[in-house]
Amino acid sequence: MQLSSLEDLFIDELKDLYSAETQLTKALPKMAKAASSKELKAGFEKHLKQTEGHVERLEQICEELEVSPKGKKCKAMEGLIEEGSEVIDEDAEPEVKDAALIAAAQRVEHYEIAGYGCVRTYAKLLGYNSAMKLLQQTLDEEGDTDKTLTKLAETINVEAEEPDDEDEAPAKAKKKKAKRKVARV
């Protein structure tokens, strides 16, 4: 597709987001299954439902524009999902894996926030008010999900930091103290 106007770019970006969201609907159940924290599992499951709604909104916008949402593969999301799959396959303590899953999920959220922010602005400039409102709704949900993940991370990351075995505590404390000294230098 040749991009000769802002409208061409808008449609191209909508297709990219559609691909990203449809890929994510396949990845989120795997992330939920890999999570050990009940809250994180529930968060992934909730976001799956939202993501299905995001796909529907994109389909609605494309229908109003009389274009197909299909035809483009979002390579960035493909890469982010691949990184998430690597986390799932890691041999890690449950809390550490949960912390890594949160990091992978936040990378996805930040990518989506950037994408939706751009297309919402394009819709506004092009006078597509209905599309702009739908895109803003999705953008708000993506932001809320990112905030929820941050809140979960505040607990899970602390749990991941704590040693499992009492015998490991002194050794980990020494390493942590040494890392702090190095960080200050």
Keywords:
mainly alpha; disordered C terminus; single chain; Ferritin; 6 helices; 185 residues; elongated; 0% strand
Précis, in short:
This protein is mainly alpha-helical.
Plain-language structure description:
With 185 residues, the chain is an all-alpha fold. The protein has one domain: Ferritin (Up-down Bundle), CATH 1.20.1260.10. Helix content is 84%, strand content 0%. The chain contains six helices and no strands. It has helices at residues 6-34, 38-65, 75-89, 94-126, 129-161, 168-184. α1 (6-34) runs antiparallel to α2 and α1 (6-34) packs parallel to α3. The radius of gyration is 20 Å and the shape is elongated.
Low-pLDDT regions:
169-185
Mean pLDDT rating: 88
Helix content: over 70%
The chain-level structural class is mainly alpha
CATH fold type? Ferritin
Anisotropy-based shape: elongated
**End-to-end distance, in Å?**
52 Å
Summarize the topology.
Layout: H1 6-34, H2 38-65, H3 75-89, H4 94-126, H5 129-161, H6 168-184
Helix pairs in contact: 1-2, 1-3, 1-4, 2-5, 3-4, 4-5
